[in-house]
């Protein structure tokens, strides 16, 4: 279910279903946590069980995703009569430059390094860049949390006993 959360950043902002989708996945994870907590023992000898920690972290990650989606949609649907702040223009430019440096496509690098990068940045661009940055950030967080869970289950993490 946590993998389904990542796909919220791929939904188009114009569809109007992004927040509903994110909240639905959050509620599904919360229900699964409730059902699984009934089947787990009330106490564990040295500490809380690893699966409970993983499910709780999934709920927290899902709640953060809901907040990120709301934030990005707020910027995406902002009226263009309000000028884009210098900070947000810098955020969009830095995000684009970093993505161009990581990209393998040489044609895309030439486009990013060219003089065409001085285009007018709109609020929709800010919303899209926030989606990209948040999506990458959430993927990294999910990978780290699940890697820690797998390490804890297989060999045990030091200092947690």
Describe the structure.
- It is a single chain.
- This protein has 161 residues and is mostly helical.
- 69% of the residues lie in helices and 0% in strands.
- The protein contains six helices and no strands.
- Helix 4 (86-102) packs across helix 6.
- The longest helix has 32 residues, at 123-154.
- The two termini are 28 Å apart.
- The mean pLDDT is 85.
Task: Please specify the SSE layout and strand pairing.
Layout: H1 2-6, H2 18-39, H3 50-76, H4 86-102, H5 106-113, H6 123-154
Helix pairs in contact: 2-3, 3-6, 4-5, 4-6
InterPro entries: Neuro-gated_channel_TM_sf, Neuro_actylchol_rec, Neurotrans-gated_channel_TM
GO cellular component, one term: membrane
Keywords: Membrane, Transmembrane, Transmembrane helix
Low-pLDDT parts are: none
Rg, please?
20 Å
Determine the structural class based on helices, strands and strand pairing. Answer: mainly alpha
Amount of beta strand: under 5%
The outline comes out as elongated
Distance between the termini: 28 Å
Counting DSSP E segments of at least 2 residues, the number of strands comes to 0
Number of distinct helices: 6
- Please give the largest β-sheet: none
Give the % helix: 55-70%
The run of helices and strands is HHHHHH
Average predicted confidence as pLDDT: 85
């Amino acid at each position: 279910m946590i993998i389904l959360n990542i796909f919220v950043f791929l939904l188009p902002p114009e569809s109007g279903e992004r927040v509903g989708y994110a909240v639905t996945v959050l509620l599904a994870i919360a229900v699964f946590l409730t059902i699984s907590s009934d089947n787990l023992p009330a106490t564990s000898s040295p500490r809380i069980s690893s699966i409970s920690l993983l499910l709780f972290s999934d709920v927290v990650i899902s709640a953060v995703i809901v907040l990120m989606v709301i934030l990005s949609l707020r910027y995406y649907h902002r009226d263009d009569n309000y000028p884009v702040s210098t900070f947000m223009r810098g955020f969009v430019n830095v995000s684009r430059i970093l993505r161009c440096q990581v990209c393998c496509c040489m044609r895309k690098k030439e486009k990013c390094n060219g003089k065409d990068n001085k285009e007018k940045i709109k609020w929709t661009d800010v919303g899209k860049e926030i989606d990209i940055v948040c999506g990458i950030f959430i993927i990294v967080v999910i990978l780290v949390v699940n890697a820690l869970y797998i390490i804890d289950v297989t060999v045990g993490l030091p200092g947690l006993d």
